[in-house]
Amino acid sequence: FSKEDAVLSILFFFSEINDGEGHPSSSHQVLKGTSRWATSLENLLEDPEGVKRFREFLKKEFSEENVLFWLACEEFKKTQGKKQMQEKAKEIYMTFLSSKASSQVNVEGQSRLSETILETPHPLMFQKLQDQIFNLMKYDSYSRFLKSDIFLNHKKSEEQEENSPEAQTAAKRASRIYNT
């Protein structure tokens, strides 16, 4: 067990306890924030801060309804009870899919999805349309987001935080313990 191994195990221990901001951390999530967002749209959409920044970007591109629809479909899949499903399905339909929708998404086949389907809802009833929107975001908006000022500025501020004296304190303490 070398000094380096000891320091690494202490650092690993500290990273398991928290992520430097007092939030619980996990070794499964080695990449954080913008580094994780940049690996895939899926990772971006799993992070509330990533969703917030992506929405901010999409709003500037006049396509925020895409991520809002995708999120609404994710929530819909978790809905329990026929009555609640009917209400949420109608809300999704009226907000995103109807010809009079306030935030209409541009999907193929939306005209074939009539209001009659809302009577017998099921968790995956919007899946095909949700997949279309996901692919639209993945192959269009997401790559532009990664080059946007919103993403790059957030990445820069993250890097500044990581390089701040506070962020390095735990590592230095661990290093001092084993360099006696």
TrEMBL record:
SUPFAM superfamilies membership: Regulator of G-protein signaling, RGS
InterPro entries: RGS, RGS10/12/14-like, RGS10_RGS, RGS_sf, RGS_subdom1/3, RGS_subdomain_2
RGS domain residues: 40-151
Alphabetized GO MF terms: G-protein alpha-subunit binding; GTPase activator activity
Region (Disordered): 156-180
GO-annotated cellular components: cytoplasm; nucleus; plasma membrane
Gene3D superfamilies, per database record: 1.10.196.10, Regulator of G-protein Signalling 4, domain 2
Protein's GO biological process: regulation of G protein-coupled receptor signaling pathway
Presence of keyword Ribosomal protein: no
SMART domains assigned: RGS
Annotated keywords: GTPase activation
Pfam family, one: RGS
Name the UniProt record assigns to this protein: RGS10 protein
Classification lineage: Eukaryota, Metazoa, Chordata, Craniata, Vertebrata
Gene name of the record: Rgs10
